[in-house]
Amino acid sequence: MIVFNRPPHTGNEDQYVMKALASTRLSGDGFFSDRCHAWFQDTLGCCKALLTPSCTAALEMAAMLIDIRPGDEVIMPSYTFVSTANAFVLRGARIVFVDVHPGSMNINENLIEVAITTKTKAIVPVHYAGASCDMSIIMEIAERYSLYVIEDAAQAISSFFKERHLGSIGHIGTYSFHETKNITSGGEGGLLIINDSKLKERAEIIREKGTNRSKFFRGQVDRYTWVDLGGSYLPSELQAAYLWGQLELIDQIHQDRLDRWKRYDQRFTEMLNRLEIELPAIPRFCQHNAHIYYLKLANLEKRTIFIDRMAKEHGIMCVFHYIPLHSSPAGRTFGEFNGTDNHTTRESERLVRLPMWHPLSLDHIDYIADSAEKILLELR
What we know:
- The protein has helices spanning 12-21, 31-44, 55-65, 82-89, 135-145, 200-207, 213-217, 237-247, 250-269, 300-314, 329-334, 344-350, 362-379; strands at residues 48-52, 73-77, 94-98, 120-123, 148-152, 160-161, 164-165, 172-176, 190-194, 286-287, 294-296, 335-337, 351-353.
- Helix 1 packs antiparallel against helix 8 and helix 10 (300-314) crosses helix 13.
- It folds into two domains: 12-247, Aspartate Aminotransferase, domain 2; 250-379, Aspartate Aminotransferase, domain 1 (Alpha-Beta Complex), CATH 3.90.1150.
- The protein is an alpha/beta fold.
- Strand 4 (120-123), helix 5 and strand 5 (148-152) form a beta-alpha-beta unit.
């Protein structure tokens, strides 16, 4: 069986995890956390980078940081993971979903302005498959209406909008290091990226259960105490150690994934005239990170048959992705779709993801492409 995902492992993680186990700061923010924080701050050019137990935790921190309150509205695409919305709903916000571009599956920036009301507090663009939303337009709208921008860049480490790292453009950004992502911190993990210096100090406090503990450890106060809202948002030092083993080789992992993505794209581009498929659309302003390679089939029925036959007949695990949040029970309770759902539902029902992990062999990709072609020809 060719599995859909296999968590990356470089070999360095093992020795670093053992070193962390022997340390006196196992609960977090020790030697490896400091290394990771410094790496992200230098690489992204952000004010502050803080490791979190998950991207979900980072999004929840973001909602607290911008003081989301009951009655506030937050604009985002419906085609995203539940955490994107849940983080803001937990603070009492109502979610306003807008349609996506059918090619990239990213939020249609031209539909954001008409969804803004006097209650709107923030815009949350989601960089699907590591391909960038149009951040120039989104940031211009946000500035004009005095709104926050929270980049859900869960899938987008090593991706760029023009010359800027995704996650480093909005007021706040978030990354995921879940085992399905390009790099992982041992199964789960995330990063909160602070790009607005006014939020830097409070981010530390929220992450430390609402206390000024970080200042205490730096010797800036003689004792620490409860000063604000907060939660338990420190990952263990084991997660940081595992992540550091991957950050050391992130360029190699990134290039390997790009090579495999390009092989997929070459093979399926050759089939476009023979098959009823569409391929990923990468915006011209984006350098993507090869997080996902997907096909779009004619409809939901053919996708269902394709996934089943790829597994049963060829031993290849393919999967669909998000069911749009606005069509879910909680989505209907806590949010609403602004305008017309022209693309979100239809495109989500057509999309199927192919195996993509480091280091999936090129021979396997050729076998996957050959198998897909055989089935798709029969489904025409």
